[in-house]
Design a protein that fits this description.
Length: about 270
Amino acid sequence: MDNYAVIGNPIAHSLSPRIHGLFAEQTGEELAYRAILSHPGEFTADVEAFRRAGGLGLNITLPFKEQAWEYVTHSSARADRARAANLIRFDADGRVYGDSTDGAGLVRDLGANGVRIIGKRILLVGAGGAVRSVMGNLLDEQPAGVTIINRTRSRALALLELFPEAGGILSAQGFDEPAAGPYNLVINGASAGLAGQPLSLPDVILAPGACCYDMVYGQAARVFLDWAAANGAAKRLDGLGMLVEQAAESFHIWRGVRPDTQPVISALR
């Protein structure tokens, strides 16, 4: 049996074992997938132990994505842009390959829900690793403009510097500054939102027909999606589809087979 796993802290809540189990059942691929709890200072040792036991690939979740990127010997362009990896593949020739599938998962889920990015104005809430991991893929879709809003404006400005190829379509602001909307798409990747705390977003920033998307799912997305409803968002989405889509990208990188995500999303709902 080929062995894969997700590693992080905390990890007991992870849906990844179930998702990949459903993918394996659907595609006929024979594999085992489990969750590994790691602790600060032990990530590399835990990854090496998994590799020595014959493990073929890992998904990486918080708080180890940046450390995973530093650990691998080869990495994709999208992992390098994010300076983080949420996937490791152990190749037969000894190469340790890292990739970042979060951005691809977000773009695919938006498309599956009828949300177009090309030519649209986007507001990204937060300037941490979650936003950094999807920025490159969003820019590849040719939006008209992307604004990063963060409690600390300097962090948003620092994130802009990682994407010089974007030119003039990127901007940054703090929560206390007037919003430069209206926006067609607002994506929440802020740590405050992840903790269920209210976000001090400006009112009246949504364009007609706007979509609001939270990168987390379930109850954790409720505060932001309630704000979206109160401000007239035409479409409100949580990140469950993104989770499944990024997992499908991982599955394809490992197995060379792309599973059908919609039955899995429906089963998890």
